[in-house]
Amino acid sequence: MSVTVVGSLNEDVLVRVGRLPGRGETAIGRDTVLAPGGKGANQAAAAGRLGTGVVMVGRVGADPAGERQLAALAEAGVDVAHVRQIAGSPTGSATIPVEEGSGENLIVVVPGANAQLRPADVDVDPVRDAGVVLLQLEIPLATVTAAAAAAGGTVVLTPAPARPLPPELLARVDVLVPNEHELVTLAGAAPADRSPAELAGLARALEADTVVVTLGARGALLVPGVGPTLLQAPPPVRAVDTTGAGDCFCGALGVALADGAVPSEAVAVAVTAAALSTTGAGARAALPDAAAVARLRRELPPATTLRG
């Protein structure tokens, strides 16, 4: 099993609030916590908890925050030899208000050193040789495209933050993993409440090999290029904080695919891992190991086949 993650490393500033603020509104926070984050690093940490042979490719600043990000990934079992510290650029950061009770959040990212990861930096053996390469969009788009082109294995892309994607990148993606908002953006559709069947229609319009739409508390939607669409509901958990749940999903999905799981099985593993990740504060406080995922899988509802 080998998984390489090419992407961002950030220091998260978590702020607990009674209610998420609206546009132009001021909210009073309860407290502030610093935690390791970044979509790429979160995916790598989740994968590292679940398996071995996980490599991170990225950039951090030559600062204390960068040292903390490297230490946190190494503690999660991730090889950080291809994460370089860049003098003169601060480690990326994200400010995340988290709503008490629901665990819902908002995220504002400042890229910092992540913007210094260049296309030439990702044409390396861990990308070329990995069974699965996980990508996101918190690094320059040209670098994401270069990593997808260099990858010799399965390419999994989380299209976040949401933006239109060039055809040359989508053509190299084997599994696209948007949430509902990202799917709507990619499809060029108007925001609206949609049923799983309607979301599946938008996913099929993208003409990707396989699309997995993460649906939060509703689980995930598997839309293969050929075959029926499956809706996988999550197991029952008490959510404390949904920060990073989508990243945990992708990390677990990558590990399962690298281990040879078929897409429906990989999605079942990923939904279970993501549900467990919401039971603690922050993006990584409750990342599960393989044993925890196996235990909770016994409570996972069967997937539902969507008609039409």
TrEMBL record:
Chief location: cytoplasm
This protein's name: Ribokinase
Catalytic activity, EC: 2.7.1.15
Compartments, as annotated in UniProt: Cytoplasm
Reactions mediated catalytically: D-ribose + ATP = D-ribose 5-phosphate + ADP + H(+)
Transmembrane domains' residue ranges: none
Known cofactor(s): Mg(2+)
Gene Ontology CC terms, in alphabetical order: cytosol
Coiled-coil zones: none
InterPro entries linked to this entry: PfkB_dom, Ribo/fructo_kinase, Ribokinase, Ribokinase-like
Binding site residues for substrate: N10, E11, D12, G38, K39, G40, A41, N42, E138, D247
Family note: Belongs to the carbohydrate kinase PfkB family. Ribokinase subfamily.
GO-annotated molecular function: ATP binding; metal ion binding; ribokinase activity
Keyword Cytoplasm: yes
Carbohydrate kinase PfkB domain ranges (all copies): 3-289
UniProt pathway: Carbohydrate metabolism; D-ribose degradation; D-ribose 5-phosphate from beta-D-ribopyranose: step 2/2
GO biological process: D-ribose catabolic process
Binding positions for ATP per the UniProt entry: N179, T214, L215, G216, A217, R218, G219, G246, D247
Keywords: ATP-binding, Carbohydrate metabolism, Cytoplasm, Kinase, Magnesium, Metal-binding, Nucleotide-binding, Potassium, Transferase
Regulation (activators, inhibitors): Activated by a monovalent cation that binds near, but not in, the active site. The most likely occupant of the site in vivo is potassium. Ion binding induces a conformational change that may alter substrate affinity.
Catalytic residues (UniProt): D247 (proton acceptor)
Top enzyme category: transferase
Subunit structure: Homodimer.
Lineage: Bacteria, Bacillati, Actinomycetota, Actinomycetes, Geodermatophilales
